[in-house]
Amino acid sequence: MIEIRPKESAILCPTILFVCKTIVYSLLFVIFIAGCTTKDKPDKISAIKNRAIIPKLRATDITTVISDSGITRYRISTPRWDVYDKASQPYWEFPQGIHFERFDERLKVDANIHSKYAKYKQNEQLWELRGKVRLTNLQGELFETEQLFWDQRQERFYSDKLIKITRTSGITTGIGFESNQSMTKYQIKRPQGVFPVSEHATAAPSTPSLQESQKLRYRHRWRRSNKY
User: Fold this and answer.
1) Torsion-angle region of residue 87: left (phi > 0), alpha (psi -120 to 50) or beta?
2) Residue 84's closest CA among 115, 51, 46, 117?
3) Which of 4, 92, 136, 215 lies in disulfide reach of 120, CB 3.0 to 4.6 Å?
């Protein structure tokens, strides 16, 4: 009698197949769980170390009015306005310049200011204007300097830089300046030169610019210091 035995591989194949399937399913389950866990995790954001240097608000290309006791007093136009509320001294910054108009009680513009840079300290109510500062008062007088401070609390303008004042009667330059808030009463601390304008002149007089006035002042100092 011939006895036929099944091959050993035929008996082991189902077992091996079952083990392989179990391993594959386990791996797929682990990958699925890992994928779900990764998706559900919130993205980590780096903590802001110094909130004082981050503006709370940034506005661009705006024109706005500011009221005081319900009365419109100021109009501001600027390409960019940053508000730093968490600084040790909260302030507004206008890094790309500002055009500023001030209204009197009858809503007449009694002064307008333009500068390449401006900063306003809120607690002190102090404006700092820098870079080709130009201010015109109600009389049409033009004030030009490189730096000007406006103290709203004390209602005055002041500067310790070279200033040029253009009036219908002439042009005055000097160092150091102080004025009331409406720019109607002012004084130059150290006058440097006066250039009268003739009433019968057919053309505008040739007067030095702010930078030229500064060069002339330094040249005059140098000559005086080199005298024997």
Assistant:
1) beta
2) 51
3) 92
Tally of domains within the chain: 1
Spatial separation of the C-alpha atoms in residues 84 and 93, rounded to whole Å = 8
> What residues in the chain have per-residue pLDDT under 70?
1-49, 197-228
Residue 44: the pLDDT is 60
Domain presence at residue 25:
no
Token digits of residue 150: 């406006």
pLDDT at residue 74, rounded to an integer: 86
* Residue span of the structural domain in which 79 resides: 52-197
110 falls within a domain = yes
Strands (E), the chain: 57-68, 71-84, 91-94, 98-103, 109-115, 117-121, 126-137, 142-151, 156-166, 170-180, 186-196
Q: 173: exposed, middle or buried (C-beta count within 10 Å: 0-12, 13-18, 19+)?
A: buried
| CATH value at residue 63 | 2.60.450.10
Q: What are phi and psi of 195, to 5 degrees?
A: -120, 100
Whole-angstrom Cα distance, residue 172 to residue 143?
10
